[in-house]
Design goal:
heterodimer; A: 10-stranded mixed β-sheet; 18% helix; disordered N terminus; disordered C terminus; B: alpha+beta
């Protein structure tokens, strides 16, 4: 004996279940793809001497030797209160930083390069200054739930205009989480 | 577990995988074959090993010796950070990869014979928090009678010896190493040298200095080389050696005015082949007793006689030189300056190089045309394995 609302809830739940199954299947592919991703050349920009030592960028190459696409969806680090995936992009003739909520695609048989001036992991709310030669642990989560932990050296790097240490420029398109 | 092994061994920066799949917690450990496609060509010298490869490597066609001074406040922890940063740079540069964060990484393309050697000067052992003293073989070369040392070419807390087949790669490598050292140290001096180590047919040869002399023939080989160069301790220094860098100005104008016979007598070897005046081939042993018309064939003050181990109680060094040509601004105008950047590797400076140097200072015929204008001593760190770092045994434990 089901009331109309509860039936609707059930069907939604079933629909949800179907969707979930589909997602699980996708996630399995994604997980398999992510599992084979190799993280290379990871490094983190030092904050000592920076204008704003509360944030910095992490850079790396994600290489996907697999046959299906992987996607980096989340990052975390013990040295930061939170980490976000950001991109520097041209907007109205100037470069601005945006958060990328959909994550970074790592195409099959290809690589995603996270580098200064482009895609990067933004480490925010740093718990301590990062000096060149320090080491930072990064936990990278891929679509499908696979996580990879890397230890990245800290290197000094000349600050760029609209850099990674200062507050992101207040572009209209920017949405900070 | 994630160790430095994962991050310093680049290709394997990969992963300590804490992967967990979506189904039933199936472990998705990273299969992680760290072999990479698209990797640069095989380097001529490995960054890994018991010793730094640059010590025994023949003089590079282009060789820069760069001394740095530590900034005030650099302590043992900071020195360790610098050496870890340099280790990752050395691994990358010697493997034909750009150092991390290199904005001009295309300049690091391999196949260039890149070899980087790192050492510490005496003051580096005096930084706060460093518990180990300098190795006993690292002592200053006392001032020689013929020296005219200039502070701008002497001393230094750190040294980089960067060699490659051509100059652009060396310029780029030195630039990256200096940029990465900027939080810790600043440039003190830089000596640029070159060497022709091959003949017209591309065969490896000893090479010549700017006097035209075949230079370096008498270097030890095999076990004698190992005995001369590698320090036996302290434990952290096993696999290390010491390096003395002397900038030797050569008076080419005066040299050019000598006859060939006078030039050959000063050295004790023929200019054409490098053979001793008593022999026919470069590698022939020198007959120091040989006389012609009652006079020594190799004169008493010939460089080869005074520098020879038999004149020095068997003391040997590994000598390596690169030629320099420079300009000096003087009140009289710009003056060409030529010479040799002389590198001497030995287990113990005080027991090996210093007595030989003193003997040469007393009597060497070449003193008339040569003057040391710079001198510096360094402890060349032992090599490191993949996953390790330069100076790890000095700074850890």
């Amino acid at each position: 004996m089901f009331s109309a609302p509860s039936l609707r809830r059930l069907s939604l739940a079933l629909l949800g279940a179907t969707t979930a199954l589909t997602l699980t299947s996708c996630a399995d592919d994604a997980g398999a793809a992510a599992a084979s991703v190799v993280v290379e050349n990871a490094w983190v920009r030092a904050t000592t001497g920076a204008q704003d030592a509360s944030m910095t960028g992490a850079f790396m190459t994600l290489r996907n030797p697999g046959s299906s696409e992987a996607r980096l969806v989340r990052a975390a680090s013990p040295v930061a209160a939170r980490a976000e995936l950001h991109v520097m992009a041209m907007d109205g003739g100037t470069k601005h930083m945006h958060r990328v909520r959909t994550g970074f695609r790592v195409p099959a048989g290809d690589a995603a390069v996270l580098e200064p001036g482009g895609r990067h992991v933004m480490l925010m709310g740093l718990t301590a200054p990062l000096a060149a030669g320090d080491e930072v642990t990064l936990v990278l989560t891929f679509a499908g739930g696979v996580t990879k932990t890397v230890v990245a050296p800290v290197k000094a790097f000349a600050e760029e205009k609209g850099g990674y240490a200062g507050a992101p420029s207040p572009a209209p398109a920017m949405s900070m989480g | 577990m994630t160790s430095r092994r994962q991050f310093l061994g680049y290709a394997a920066t990969a992963v300590a995988a804490a992967g967990s799949g979506v189904l039933g917690g199936r472990a998705l450990d990273d299969p992680g074959p760290p072999t990479a496609s698209g990797r640069a060509r095989v380097p001529s010298y490995s960054p890994y090993g018991e010793h730094q490869a640059g010590v025994l490597a023949p003089a590079s066609a282009v060789l820069h010796v760069v001394a740095l001074d530590l900034l005030p406040g650099v302590d043992a922890a900071a020195l360790g950070r610098l050496l870890r940063v340099w280790t990752s740079d050395v691994e990358a540069l010697m493997s034909g990869r750009p150092p991390l964060g290199d904005p001009a990484g295309e300049l690091a393309e391999g196949g260039n014979g890149m070899v980087v050697t790192v050492g510490l000067g005496p003051r580096a052992f005096a930084v706060d928090g460093l518990r180990r003293p300098a190795p006993p073989g690292l002592v200053p070369v006392p001032r020689m009678r013929h020296d005219a040392l200039e502070p701008g070419w002497s001393g230094g807390d750190l040294v980089l010896v960067v060699g490659a087949d051509e100059a652009t790669s060396v310029d780029h490598a030195v630039r990256r190493l200096l940029v990465d050292a900027a939080p810790f140290a600043r440039l003190r001096w830089r000596q640029r040298g070159s060497w022709r180590g091959t003949d017209a047919h591309g065969r490896r040869v000893t090479g010549r200095n700017l006097f035209g002399q075949v230079d370096g023939t008498g270097n030890p080989t095999g076990q004698a080389l190992a005995d001369a160069v590698w320090a036996s301790g302290p434990p952290w220094f096993t696999g290390g050696t010491t390096l003395v860098v002397r900038r030797i100005r050569m008076d080419l104008d005066a040299w050019d005015r000598l006859t060939r016979e006078e030039q050959e007598a000063a050295l004790g070897r023929r200019l054409t082949t490098g053979a001793p005046l008593t022999g026919a081939h470069e590698r022939d042993a020198v007959d120091f007793a040989a006389r012609r018309d009652g006079r020594l064939v190799v004169p008493a003050d010939a460089h080869v006689r005074l520098a020879h181990p038999s004149s020095n109680g068997g003391r040997r060094i590994l000598r390596k030189g690169v030629n320099y040509s420079d300009e000096r601004v003087t009140p009289q105008g710009v003056v060409a300056d030529h010479g040799l950047v002389f590198l001497s590797f030995q287990a113990d400076v005080g027991r090996q190089l210093v007595p030989v140097q003193q003997r040469l200072d007393e009597a060497d015929a070449l003193n008339r045309w040569t003057t040391a204008i710079g001198s510096a001593e360094f402890a060349v760190l032992p090599g490191f394995p993949r996953g390790g770092w330069l100076g790890q045994a000095l700074l850890e434990g």
